[in-house]
């Protein structure tokens, strides 16, 4: 489908532009955009792999996802820096100590990323076009509803009894669902439902803010020599984490009820 290839081409160009910038310096916004680009490309190729199982999406995406996993360590530190700087009533000396530890970790992780980027992984990233994979438009459109339904089923399994790992998986599937819808936005007759997008974005924001705090707490715990000093910061992030996940649970139920009602209408 030409519409999916146009989406793929524009997305890959932007992602490679950010990748080239990241190799020069660990700039926060470029890292964020690069990781979002890889997630969007992952959603597209995973969907195409459902349409045609002979397409080995994981193998196609392996170089890109390897780079993304490496740079994600730096992105997590950027997020943690932002979160601790927003906290009220934090001792300034403690804040300075944590900031120095995080910036030192960024420097170490960035050296590892540069080593990986300059080894056997080719830059710019190259991914096959939709047309080159021999996928008929009718076949793609035929499989789209079932692929989206599978993603929704995975999202809906999160519940009050779910672990952090379960909620993280639901968050990933929600993003993949959203990105799959976005991939078709240039295709005739495949317009997005603005009501659904608003609800997805709200739920994604809640789960994203929750996961940011989960990651930040894990990073702060990794500074074992500072674990005791960082306890007030960790406790506050844990408190926020609980509130956000509670809100996400409520909103997920609301979204799934709405989705079920629209599908039955």
Distance between the termini: 29 Å
- Structural class estimated from helices and strands: mainly alpha
Uncertain regions: pLDDT < 50 for 5+ in a row?
none
Order of helices and strands: HHHHHHHH
Outline: flat
Q: What's the arrangement of secondary structure elements?
A:
Elements (H helix, E strand, L loop, with lengths): L1 H23 L3 H24 L5 H30 L5 H26 L19 H20 L7 H20 L10 H29 L8 H34 L1
Helix pairs in contact: 1-2, 2-3, 2-5, 2-6, 3-4, 3-7, 5-6, 6-7, 7-8
Protein model, in words:
By secondary structure, the chain is mostly helical. It has one domain: CHAD domain. The protein has 8 helices and no strands. α2 packs antiparallel against α3, α2 crosses α5 and α5 runs antiparallel to α6. The radius of gyration is 20 Å and the shape is flat.
Brief summary of the model shown:
The protein has 265 residues and is mainly α. It has helices spanning 2-24, 28-51, 57-86, 92-117, 137-156, 164-183, 194-222, 231-264.
Task: List key phrases describing it.
265 residues; mainly alpha; CHAD domain; flat
């Amino acid at each position: 489908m030409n519409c999916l290839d146009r989406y793929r081409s524009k997305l890959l160009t932007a992602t490679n532009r950010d990748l080239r910038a990241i190799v020069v310096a660990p700039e926060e916004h470029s890292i964020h955009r690069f990781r979002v680009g890889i997630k969007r490309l992952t959603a597209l190729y995973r969907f195409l792999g459902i349409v045609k199982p002979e397409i080995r999406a994981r193998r196609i995406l392996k170089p890109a996802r390897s780079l993304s996993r490496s740079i994600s360590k730096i992105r997590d530190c950027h997020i943690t820096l932002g979160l601790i700087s927003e906290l009220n009533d934090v001792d300034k000396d403690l804040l300075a100590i944590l900031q120095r530890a995080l910036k030192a970790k960024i420097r170490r992780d960035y050296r590892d990323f540069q080593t990986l980027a300059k080894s056997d992984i080719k830059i710019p990233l190259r991914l096959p076009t939709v047309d080159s994979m021999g996928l008929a438009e009718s076949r793609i459109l035929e499989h789209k509803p079932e692929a989206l339904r599978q993603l929704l089923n995975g999202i809906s399994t999160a519940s009050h009894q779910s672990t952090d790992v379960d909620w993280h998986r639901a968050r990933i599937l929600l993003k993949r669902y959203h990105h799959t819808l976005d991939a078709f936005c240039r295709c005739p007759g495949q317009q997005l439902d603005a009501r659904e997008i608003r609800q997805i974005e709200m739920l994604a924001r809640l789960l994203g803010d929750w996961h940011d705090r989960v990651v930040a707490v894990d990073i702060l715990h990794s500074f074992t020599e500072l674990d005791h000093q960082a306890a007030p910061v960790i406790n506050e992030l844990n408190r926020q984490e609980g509130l956000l996940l509670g809100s996400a649970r409520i909103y997920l139920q609301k979204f799934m009820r709405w989705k079920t009602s629209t599908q039955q209408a």
